[in-house]
Amino acid sequence: MRWNEASNWHQCFRAVIKRVGDNNHGKPGRTKKVMDCPTDLITEHDVYLFREGTHTRLYEKLGSRARPGGGAGVRFAVWAPNARSVSVIGDFNGWDRAAHPLAQRPDSSGIWEGVVAEAARGALYKYHIVSRVNGHAADKSDPFAFRTEPAPRTASVAWDHDYEWRDAEWMSRRIHANSLEAPWAIYEVHLGSWCRVPEEGNRFLSYREIAPRLAEYVSRTGFTHVELLPVMEHPFYGSWGYQVTGYFAPSARYGTPQDLMFLVDCLHRHGIGVILDWVPSHFPDDEHGLVYFDGTHLYEHADPRQGFHPEWTSYIFNYGRHEVRAFLASSAHFWLEKYHVDALRVDAVASMLYLDYARRDGEWIPNRYGGRENLEAIDFLRQLNESVYRDFPHVQTIAEESTAWPQVSRPVYLGGLGFGMKWNMGWMHDTLDYLSLDPIHRKYHHDRLTFSIWYAFYENFVLPLSHDEVVHGKGSLFGKMPGDDWQKYANLRLLFGYMWGHPGKKLLFMGGEFAQWREWAHEESLEWHALQHPEHEGVRKWVGDLNRLYRREPALHERDFSAVGFEWVNCHDWEQSVIAFLRRGRSPDDVLLVVCNFTPVVRANYRVGVPRGGTWRELLNGDAHHYGGRGHGNLGGVEAAPLPCDGRQHSLVLTLPPLAALFLKPAPAGS
C-alpha cells in the first residue's frame, strides 16, 4: 500500500486521554495520548488463524502500517502476550517510553496495538516492553519490520513496499523455468563479497549497483538461477546472514527494500530466477531481537535442552507454539509475494528434525514416544510446504538436509516433508574426497564415484558445491585439486564436467566457476583479477559451455529425478578410473553419452558401447585448447561400429583426453 493513498479501512481512529498508572518501567503515572485501535484491521478470523498457527499473511496485520484513509500517523501492532505494558518509542517522540503506549486487545490474542499520529514513513522506532511475569523491561525491534537501520544500529524503520515491477514476462513463464523438469544451474552468491570497491574503502556494492553487473555476468556464464545467501537483516555480518533478526526486512547494508526489489526485478528481466536462503531453524541472542521478547521465552523453548543451539550459540524456535508457526510461515510467504522470489532454500533442516542434533546424551529431551524426532518441527515443515505450494504453485522449496531422513522431497500426502528438492550432501562429500586424491590412488576408491547412483532418485536432488566447502580452512575448490598447476585446472574442469553430466540440479558457489585460488573470505571481493590468466578464463568458459549444453539438451535435465533418465554404460573400469553413462530425455532422440577419464593419461582406442549406430558428435571436450587443455579428442565426432560392447550392439572407439569429460550425442539420421 502507498503511504498516501486511501484504503478500505472503515473505522476512524479517535484519540482519548487516559490515565495510565505505573506502566513506564517504574516511573510515576503520567497523562499520555493513546489511540483506539480499529476492529476491522485485525479481525476475529485473523486472531483465530494466528492462534491456530495457520495464518500466512501476518505481515499485513502486525508491525507498522499506514494509517487508514491516508491520514497522518502509523498504526503499530505487536504480539507480546506476557507484557504488562508496551509502548512505541522512536525519533518522533524523543524515545520517550511514556509518550505512546499501546492498548492490549480484549480478545486474549496477546496483541498490543495503537496509532501514533506523529509517526510517518521513515520513522525510526522500537517497542519498549515491560513483562508482567517478572518486570523485565527491554527495547525491542519490531519482529515484522519491513526495514531496519543499517548495522550496528538496531531500530526498525516504518516503511512500505511501493514498487513498480517490470518482470511480468518472467512471472508469466516461470511455471516452466521453475519446474522440476527444467534446468537449474544455480549460482550461489554472497552479496557482501561478490564484488567490492577497493578505491572507496573496500565498500560493499548496493543492491542497485550489483544488479546489472550480476545479471550480465550470470547471463554470460549461462546460469539459470541465482541463490543469495540470507539477505534478511542480521546484526553480525560475519554470520553471512545465517543469524537473522529481521525476518521481514532485507539487510540495510546494501540499501532499501525497493533496492532489493530492483535487484530481483533486474535478474528476472534477464531471464534469471532468484532463490533466497531462509533460516527458520534458529535465531541469535541479540537483546533487541526475538529472544526473551516479552520477558518470557516467547519465540524459543524455555528449556535449553530444546531451546538453545549448542553448535551455533543461538536459540531454537518453539515449533509447538502455533503463533510461532504463523510467524515463520508468514515470513516465507512474505518473500515469495512481496519480492517475487522463485524459491526458498531452507537452511539447516536436519537441526530442526532431530532433537539430539549437535547434543550429547542427557542434553536433549525425547519426544512423547521416546524418540529423537522433533515432531512439532516435522508438522511445521509439512504445513509450511503445503501452504507455499498452495499459494505459490510456480515456486520451489529446497531443503538443506544433511542426513538420510526419508522422503524430504516427496509430497506430504505420501508421508513426505513436502519440499520440492533437497541438497545431495552425500554426493558432494564423496565426489570432493575422490577428486582430492592423487589420480594414482583413485582406482582404489572407484565406488565413491558410482555409489551416488544407488540413491540418486530417492529424492529430487540438487548437487551442491556451496560456500560451506570453501571456508574455515577447507581451501578453494581449485586448492582441493591434486597435482601440478596443469592437473589442478584439469581436475577442476573434470569435476564440473562430471557434475553437470550427473543426474540432479546444479549449484556452484561464486568464485568456483573461474578457479579462484584462495578460499572464500567474506570481507573481501572475489579474485576477479584471476580472469586475466587464460587458465582461469578457460575454466569460466568451460562452466559457461556446460551451462549452455545443460540448458539446451533435454537429456541432461528433463529426467534429473527419474531412473529412466540415467543408464550406466561402464561403471566397472576401476583399473583405468573411467566411467561412462547415458542421459536420456523424454524423446527417444534425446540421448547423450558422458565419458570421464579421472587419470592424467590419454586413453587411446577406448571402446564404449552405445545404443545406436551412426555418427556421434563430440559436443564438449574438457581438454580442448579453448578451456586450457592439451587438445586431445575425437576431431568432432566418431562413427559407431556394429561391434558389441558393454552389452550393446554398437560401440565407439574413443580417445579419452586426460583428466577430462566428454559429451557426445548421436547425429540426426541423414545428417
Structure write-up:
It contains 15 helices and 33 strands. It has 671 residues and is of the alpha+beta class. An 8-stranded parallel β-barrel has the order 12-15-18-21-22-23-24-25, surrounded by 5 helices. Strands 26-27-28-33-30-31 form a 6-stranded antiparallel β-sheet. The chain is elongated, with a radius of gyration of 28 Å. Among the domains are: 15-157, Immunoglobulins (Immunoglobulin-like); 242-423, Glycosidases (TIM Barrel, Alpha-Beta Barrel), CATH 3.20.20; 563-666, Immunoglobulin-like. The model is unreliable at 1-40 (pLDDT under 50). The N and C termini lie far apart (59 Å). Strand 26 (566-570) and strand 27 form a beta hairpin.
Q: Which characteristics define this entry?
A:
23% helix; TIM Barrel; six-stranded antiparallel beta sheet; Immunoglobulin-like; disordered N terminus; elongated; 15 helices; alpha+beta; eight-stranded parallel β-barrel; 671 residues
